[in-house]
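Example 9 (inverse folding). The structure is encoded as follows.
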């Protein structure tokens, strides 16, 4: 394969640097915008090419030494070679770029990205794989296992659980999710401090004295339970039966949790949710809030249509994938005005980004005043 000299123009969502060679985009991992590199083209497609870094010819002032010995081979982290402030700038740019390019938004109401107080030792769970005595993570872009003794972005307690697992004789092949002893057994946000900030931000965006909250993809009720005092009725939907069982464990009378698929539940009219929504519609003042926190695939067309039909005054969209968020907001913005977009760095050193979008129904103001978020430092 051939060697090329490239000037890195940007870092794309997913973590790879982008350069141009004879007009074609070339993606190179582990580089930084502004750097000049020599790279080997390893895959060539019609529209783009992929390359591996061979030599740094001009390195960025934002280049730092990675803390992890597996960095560059392990598929988990993409940005340990980049100073934290610059990681934040890259993520902020990736979110606004996706909203402009895919969401076709001209004026994106972006708020500054919220940093993580911890840049390492923040993950409260990891899933490792064991095969033939090797315990660790998959190599980047492959299913080849790397033996990992310690993961520096994870909490000490998680690393202790890893050491214990590695010490087991006759370990069966398979996946193991490791958490602190007190951790929930179902989906939970991975960075406790940033998750707390996200939950506070959501609470600030939701006005008090409302009738109904529908928390879609509610997990064990992370958002719903923090908002109970603002609603007469709370309905959570998630297809994970164990998460729903955890949500039900300490539920009050106003909470109902449904184990089911979000699209089917939102489009049924013969059940509790249909009845609740119909009651609100008939009432003189509607006050419904919907939260969606979907997996990376985002919302289906059916869910977007169901949300449009339910016409909540407030729609909170928590996303872990800016491109699918942008696609969904493009479709929703006819009916909903986008008030703010706040990226959060839930996953330092990795290419992942969490984004909070606050939408209001375009006719909402005739029903309910907007919440006035507390000013934040
Ligand atoms: C990103 S997590 C959010 C969990 C929760 N909001 C929290 O903060 O803990 C996504 C959740 O969506 C659920 N899920 C994914 N696809 C679903 C679907 N089609 N219908 C219902 N739940 C789904 C998963 O079980 C998971 O709990």
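The amino acid assigned to each position is listed next.
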């Amino acid at each position: 394969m051939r060697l090329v000299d490239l000037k890195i123009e940007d870092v794309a969502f997913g973590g790879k640097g982008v350069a141009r060679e004879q007009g074609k985009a070339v993606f190179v991992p582990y580089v930084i915008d502004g750097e000049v590199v020599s790279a080997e083209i390893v895959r060539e497609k019609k529209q783009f090419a992929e390359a591996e870094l061979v030599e740094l010819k001009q390195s960025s002032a934002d280049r730092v030494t990675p803390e992890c010995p597996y960095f560059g081979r392990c598929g988990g982290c993409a940005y340990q070679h980049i100073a934290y402030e610059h990681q934040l700038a890259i993520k902020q740019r990736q979110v606004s770029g996706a909203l402009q390019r895919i969401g076709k938004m001209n004026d994106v109401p972006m708020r500054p990205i919220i940093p993580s107080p911890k840049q390492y030792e923040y993950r409260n769970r990891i899933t490792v794989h064991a095969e033939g005595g090797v315990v660790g993570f998959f190599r980047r872009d492959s299913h080849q296992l790397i033996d990992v003794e310690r993961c520096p972005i994870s909490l000490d307690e998680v690393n202790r659980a890893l050491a214990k697992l590695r010490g087991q004789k006759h370990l069966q092949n398979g996946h193991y999710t490791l958490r602190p002893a007190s951790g929930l057994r179902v989906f939970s946000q991975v960075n406790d401090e940033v998750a707390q900030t996200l939950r506070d931000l959501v609470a600030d965006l939701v006005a008090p004295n409302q009738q109904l909250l529908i928390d879609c993809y509610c997990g064990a009720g992370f958002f719903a339970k923090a908002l109970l005092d603002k609603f007469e009725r709370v309905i959570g939907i998630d297809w994970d039966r164990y998460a729903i069982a955890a949500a039900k464990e300490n539920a009050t009378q106003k909470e109902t949790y449904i184990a089911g698929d979000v699209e089917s539940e939102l489009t049924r009219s013969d059940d509790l949710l249909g009845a609740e929504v119909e009651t609100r519609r008939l009432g003189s003042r509607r006050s419904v809030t919907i939260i969606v926190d979907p997996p990376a695939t985002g919302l289906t067309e059916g869910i977007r249509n169901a949300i449009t039909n339910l016409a909540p005054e407030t729609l909170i969209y928590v996303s872990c994938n800016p491109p699918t968020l942008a696609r969904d907001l493009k479709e929703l913005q006819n009916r909903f005005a986008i008030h703010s977009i706040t990226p959060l760095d839930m996953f330092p050193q990795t290419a992942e980004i969490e984004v909070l979008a606050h939408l209001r129904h375009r006719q909402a103001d005739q029903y309910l005043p907007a919440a006035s978020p507390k000013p934040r430092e």
